[in-house]
Amino acid sequence: MAERFTKSMARNMYMGGSLFFILIFIGLTLDTVRQLPERDNRENLTESVAHGKKLWEDNNCVGCHSLMGEGAYFAPELGNVFYRRGGEESFKVFFKSWMNAQPLGIEGRRAMPQFNLNDEDLEALADFLEYAAKINTNDWPPNIEG
């Protein structure tokens, strides 16, 4: 080994390291692209789900809630609320009742506003939350209460 670190040695290390990490990046990208079709939930994407997503955005639900870890942490995570509140059997009944009962008016507790959504809108928003809950997120969030 040379006693002195030359410019050409530094350049070769830089180029070799850059190439190595570019190849790693490309490999991880290709692996992700290969896995995505197996993980999506497109077969459940309906007009009602799309309408629910639009309601989610129009009412700025992400301003208080998080969905799969994205959003504000003022109110509960809603990525798995479908499973937390009854799943197929009772989620929609719970969700509609909960939304219609807002604000609860419990002193010292954060208050959710009343959005005055009709039954069709509540059904669509519930469908969107069900759709989001059924996306394969590699078990994220790690606990059922979000």
Automatic annotation (TrEMBL):
The keyword Heme applies. It holds the Pfam family Cytochrom_C. InterPro entries: Cyt_c-like_dom, Cyt_c-like_dom_sf. Keywords: Heme, Iron, Metal-binding. Residues 47-133 form the Cytochrome c domain. This is Nitric oxide reductase subunit NorC. It comes from Litoribacillus peritrichatus. The gene is norC.
